[in-house]
Structures are given as structure tokens and as C-alpha cells.
Amino acid sequence: MENKSDYPDYVARFYDLIYSQLRTIDRDYFLGKILETRGPVLEIGVGTGRLFLEALNRGADIDGIDNSASMLAKLKEKLDQRHHNRIVLQDARAMNLPRKYDLIVAPFRVFSHLIDMQDQIQVLNNVYDHLNRNGRFIFDLYVPDLNILLHGIKEKVDFEGEYQPGKKLRRVVSAKPDLIKQVSLVTMTFTWEEDDHVRTEAWQTPMRFYFRYELEHLVHRSKLTLKHIYGDYQENELHSHSKDFVVVCDRKD
What's the predicted TM-score (pTM) here? Predict the structure, then answer.
């Protein structure tokens, strides 16, 4: 098991601002699944609470884990003290929690951070062990774009705006694919104005990409049962223009 480094402070600092604009497509789907669940729910990769906070405020019995101390620190700043026990600094590959859940979710491509097959199966089995009987696990991933896999992503600005009045933030992203390892090395470069200076920091992270039948075989090798792989957040079937895998698994004893 490789140790994954923490998110840098600047990634956690600007995460909410950037992804409140860039990542909205999955919000209603995962919130709907969480809120319709009568029993306890766990979010893997809870981060700064993009989904967690709204679900909790709307009455969900929800816990969260993340292996990034900097992301959880941002979440705790927004979270009432009485709910701090709901979030735990923990790696899903070594997940060991005192509760079991009716629903576990891993939104926004958490599985892309799992590079090795052994880690992927370990997480699936850990999820199984933390589900109640007939519990459900839902995670999502992007459908690989063959053009990007061949040519990568050249530097492009994906966010530009103000993080405070009069203070600008810009993020540039690029990606270099490794077809043999099925990994894209993603580089995010942040440039922002602070204390009358311009600060620039670059962060690199490998992102694993998956194909449909690989996902099917992966789940079948675990203790979970695959219910379906959908092609979007409306649970339509996969087709040639699908952008997302939405993978639904069950614990069947």
C-alpha cells in the first residue's frame, strides 16, 4: 500500500470556491440517495463537506472519512462542534469504524486515487464489512476519453476569479497519460494574489482511469455484488457518449 500525501494547504483552501462552480453534476444524485436512506450513511472522501454538510443539515445520519488532514480541517471550520465526531481522518484502504451503514458513497472519483488493484479490492471489501445486510455502495468514475488518453491535456485555465474582493485566483490544469499503468498524471497550478505578492504553486497527482468491464471484474473479485453500472446521474444506460460511470453495488449475504 502506497502512502498518499496530504492535499497541500492551498488546494484545500480554494477547493470550495473552485468546485462550487466546476462540480455540480453529481450533487442532486448523491444527496437524493443519502436523504432517501433511513439508516446511517458514510461518505468516503468527504473532503471539505461539499455534499456532507447539506446532507447533515437536511437531517441525514451521516459520517465521513478522508485521508487528508488539510481537507478535514476546512470541514471542521464549517461544522458545528457537536458534529466533529462524525468525521474521521482515515484511509479507506485501512477503514475501521465502529458503525455499520445502510449506504456508503464515494463521490467525485474517489476510486481514481486508488492506483493498485490490491488497494481497489481492499477498499471494496472494507466497504462490504462496513455495510449492514442489504446495504448499498455507490461510487462514480469518469469514462475515459480516448483522445485525452492518446494526447493528454495541454495546459488550460479551468478557473479564474476572485477568492476575496480584489484578490484574484487562477488555476491551470494539464494531464499526461501513461497507457500501460492506466494513469493520468494531473498537474494543477494555482496562482493567486496575497500580501501584495503573486504566489504560484503546482501540485501533481496520479489519477487512475478504468474501463467498463474492468470495473465489472473488479467488483466480482470483491465480496460485494454488482447491481448495475449506469452511464450518468439520471441512471440511464451506458452508451457511446456517456461521460460518467455510476457504479451501484450491494451487500448480499
Answer: 0.96
